[in-house]
Amino acid sequence: MEPATSASTASISATRLVVMVGTPEVDRPAYQWLSEAVRSLVADGRLLHGTRLPSERSMVAALGLSRTTVTRAYAELRDRGYATARQGSGTIAVLPGGPAAGGAEPVPMGVPGSAPAGAIDWRSAAPPAVAGLTSAYARAGEHIGRFVSGMGYFPVGIPEIREAVAQRYTERGLATSPDQIIVTTGATEGTAAAAQVLLGRGSRVIAETPAYPNSLVTLRREVSRVVPVPITWDGSDVGAWESATVGSGARAAFLTPDFHNPTGALLDAERRDQLAALWRRHKLTGLVDETLAELVIDDLTMPAPMAAFATSAVTVGSVSKMLWGGLRVAWIRAPRNLIGPLTQARMSIGLGGPVMEQMVAADLIRRGVGSDNERRDSLRSRRRVVMDGIHEALPDWTTVAPPGGLWLWWRLPVPRSTALVRAAREEGLLMLPGSTFAVAESGLEHWVRTPFALPEADLTEAVVRLARAWARVT
Amino acid sequence: MEPATSASTASISATRLVVMVGTPEVDRPAYQWLSEAVRSLVADGRLLHGTRLPSERSMVAALGLSRTTVTRAYAELRDRGYATARQGSGTIAVLPGGPAAGGAEPVPMGVPGSAPAGAIDWRSAAPPAVAGLTSAYARAGEHIGRFVSGMGYFPVGIPEIREAVAQRYTERGLATSPDQIIVTTGATEGTAAAAQVLLGRGSRVIAETPAYPNSLVTLRREVSRVVPVPITWDGSDVGAWESATVGSGARAAFLTPDFHNPTGALLDAERRDQLAALWRRHKLTGLVDETLAELVIDDLTMPAPMAAFATSAVTVGSVSKMLWGGLRVAWIRAPRNLIGPLTQARMSIGLGGPVMEQMVAADLIRRGVGSDNERRDSLRSRRRVVMDGIHEALPDWTTVAPPGGLWLWWRLPVPRSTALVRAAREEGLLMLPGSTFAVAESGLEHWVRTPFALPEADLTEAVVRLARAWARVT
Questions:
Q1: Which sign, positive or negative, has the C-alpha torsion B267, B268, B273, B275?
Q2: CA-closest candidate to residue A360, choices B357, B39, B161, B160
Q3: How many other CB atoms are there within 10 angstroms of residue B247's CB atom?
Q4: What's the pTM?
Q5: What Rg value do the Cα atoms of chain A yield, rounded?
Q6: Of the partner residues A103, A111, A155, the one whose CB lies closest to the CB of residue B343
Q7: Distance (Å, rounded) from C-alpha A151 to C-alpha B388?
Q8: Taking 90 as the threshold, does the pLDDT of residue A4 lie above it?
Q9: Hey, which residues 92-131 in chain B have their CB within 8 Å of chain A?
């Protein structure tokens, strides 16, 4: 599992590494501090597996610590499996065991296989873990002992996470108490439980098209028909909602108001109000997907959550895009009268998620991790790489920069989305055609989604391959 | 959250504590070793919150270490919040934050509320975490870094746990490869996914009665009718299965062959073979609940897993009873031709469980934790406390000692199960009436289940309260 070393091995300068490790701690030997700081950078994925570390000499100069300290720290890194020394290559940071393969967010046509060697996977759009995740795990590990003398079942979640999520809703403008929160293992489980309660078999649901395909799979299991409402970059039109609703017999409406997947649209407060009024008139319950809501990129005043307008709505939120998909922590927020039935539905498909991740997620939410400025700057910069890159390479493609979220939704000048995706695969770029997102499961040949969750170097290369693929198609 | 101290505070002798902490490690200061060993006992629940530690003087004598070492270790325990010193009471071991409330395995009539003060909860039957869980978490924490650069979604499970589970099936006599394992978040999720694939709406399923009520809730969501087959201590009768099957139109059979819940019955190899032949003749697929299979108590040769007899069967297993419910790691084992459809079904209700617990469970399964002799001795001893206690106090109640599992199933001399449960509540003992386990959701008034997963002192007291309750009823 050792990384290949070659002339092209990434490296980090002593100046940069010194900034990343911060300042020495006074209460223990400096070599221990340095070794642990570097280990934590590697474990957190901020210092990538295979990066060449600065020479000991340059670290001594940059840190202002003794040669002995740096030598001992590097030796300890090697002893613990976080570095290897190779003749002529210096010291290489490694992750013990190497990075794990796989882990992409699944798409409904099946679990994405591991991409062919060298391919860039643009089918999914979830970021890697936030910095600080491994230390949050370590902190939670210190407290897991509080739970081990019990059986470990918390079907609606441990108090800590219910409180943290309720508090965050309240901060966002929707007063919420912890007993309105049911923790689920991912948003899909929350959507499945909510669909059981709100929809009932053979009923109808109104949903935006395009939409997140995994949610459509879950909704289709419960209902006889999904009635589509079109949505583009600027959100769905209240008039279109009204036409779809009248005479549809639908009992519920599925909506992603905060950075819609895949259009990136943010529904403004005025339309939230109008939609809520429409739902009240037609006795529809809103089922609101808020999994992207914390991924704000632009400086803007966010409208209050949809359930502040439609008080009977059931909201599904998640830390998967905000902190890490591998935590599998999500929740349902609902009015109190629905908590009982939702708990029963949730228990028919699972008796609760693990305790540890709920502690980790509660800890990080309380610290504001995942919705901080650093995350925002990184998303803004990645969005720019994809947007500017495609505008330059493919000037007849059009889009509108989404104010948040993880993807751009492009309109192609000719309806060749499926052909493009086929050609892109030949170029080593895996994508989903527009039809994947269509409620009708076909059409949307004029559209394609480009995520911007990957590292910038990968995004730049993805744009190059995309342009080559488009040239083959047209 | 500090424990009350009183004359009745539990204490531990220096001799006993010295055995539990093991031998000093040579590569670091003895005080650090001692402090960490005690912390780990407290975190693992082996040294209970509120236990009075031996005096420093007696530890010095028992350990053969210096007074300074013991004093520093005790000071470090206090500094880290794992001990408090109180005038006249010595040093008390505490869990930082105190033990968490709740965590009982839920029962289908709702999430069990916290029991009234002083009540013993005999409604659920899951043990606390195995010893060694917190160190397994610490080991897994060292490796979580391998996963954080990916998105963290593993809808069928990470390779490590699929391999460990497949290996364990092979050891138990059922050759299995990792690609036949789909990891789920608890057995209920596995049962829900399997029910989607095997049953289909409006179909029928044959199931033993009594049965695990959470599974019945999940099955009822998919089928029009659950056709019952009676089962008692010695398992279900193949003739009864045949009568229930012929003309039922059922497509699947739900079975718990290894320490059935609640009867504790173990299905022998001969009947496994006969049942498998019956299923083949009638084109039934077996849905096998194996969540108790590793909880063997008596010295016996276990028959091979049911799927070794019925090769088309789908099996659901879990670590909840074997390691800890709070891990929420379970799996489906299926023939290869069903893995695709089962994966799709699993993804319609959730996109996978967290990475961390899969690492922890794989680690512990590979080490044989949870099916070891220590666990077996503890279960045997607890079974004896309940069995002998009830035989003595209520000589006209009858049972048969189950060869494994976590409960005894008693036949009452008169059909007063519901009345007994009501009276038991008055005595501070929470139980479930026999009807909870009935497929028909009523009846079984002659029966009651007594779990033996609790600490022995609680079990002894539970039997006293049970006898008092029965006296009120008769």
A1: negative
A2: B357
A3: 8
A4: 0.91
A5: 24
A6: A111
A7: 25
A8: no
A9: 95-106, 108, 110-111, 124, 126-129
Q: How far is A185 from chain B (nearest CA, A)?
A: 7
In chain A, what residues touch B347 (CB-CB under 8 Å)? 106, 108, 111, 188, 214, 217
User: Which residue's structure tokens are 């709406």?
Assistant: B201
Give the residue on A whose Cα is nearest the Cα of B142.
Answer: A43
Q: Is the pLDDT of residue B290 over 50?
A: yes
Contact yes or no for B133 and A151 at CB 8 A: no
Residue B175: other Cβ atoms inside 10 A:
9
Question: Which pLDDT score is estimated for B43?
Answer: 85
Which residues are paired to A411 by β-bridges?
Answer: A398, A447
* Interfacial B residues in 47-66 facing A (CB < 8 Å): 48-49
Establish, for the pair of chains A and B, how many residue pairs have beta carbons separated by less than 8 Å: 287
In contact, B413 and B86? CB cutoff 8 Å: no
- Residue A303 CB contacts under 8 Å (≥ 6 apart), including other chains: A173, A257, A266, A267, A268, A269, A272
Tell me how far apart the alpha carbons of residues B17 and B74 are, in angstroms, rounded to a whole number.
Answer: 13
- Residue whose entry in the numeric block shows the structure tokens 């994966």: B343
**A contact test, residue of B130, B147, B218 with most A CBs within 10 A:** B147
* Partner-chain contact A95 B350, CB within 8 Å: no
DSSP element (H, E) containing A161: helix A159-171
Mean of pLDDT values over A43-57: 89
- pLDDT, tens digit (0-9, with 9 covering 90-100), for A448-463: 999 999 999 999 999 9
Closest CA to A35 of A53, A49, A51: A53
- CA distances (Å), origin B222, targets A201, B200, B202, B228, B252: 11, 6, 7, 16, 12
CA atoms of A446 and A411, how far apart (whole Å): 6
Question: What is the helix (H) or strand (E) element at residue A109, kind and residue range?
Answer: none
- Express each pLDDT in B299-309 by its tens digit: 999 999 999 99
CB contact under 8 A, B141 and A137: yes
